[in-house]
Amino acid sequence: VLPCGQILAEHLSVPSVFFLRLIPCGLDSEASLCPNPSSYVPRIFTDLTDHMNFFQRVKNLIFDIPNFFLCDFLFQPYAKLASEFLQRDVTVADLLRKASIWLMRLDFVLDYPRPLMPNMIFIGGMNCAHKK
Q: In the record, which residues are listed under signal peptide (predicted)?
């Protein structure tokens, strides 16, 4: 998930199409402005469902806390690169918000069903073909 292509698209003012699957730290939900509350949407590696009791919701929130610090650390070099190249302060989430279309390759058998925004197109998940 290196946003160098998006930095260049922003500089050239060309539309961008994302074909991504689960950007680290839930950045895809943040950038596309999809609702993603910790009290309702299960986080990855928690083995929780959308029917959680209070303690499971607390566990879900605790699993989400490191993402705030990890994302800033992980994407800080790219935010700095984008700010220098575009000559204005910009974050990676700001760059990803400029997407024209998001092609979401999700599989609701493996992934939790979540709302999609109008510029998001669900294109299906796993392709199971028989090998010869």
A: none
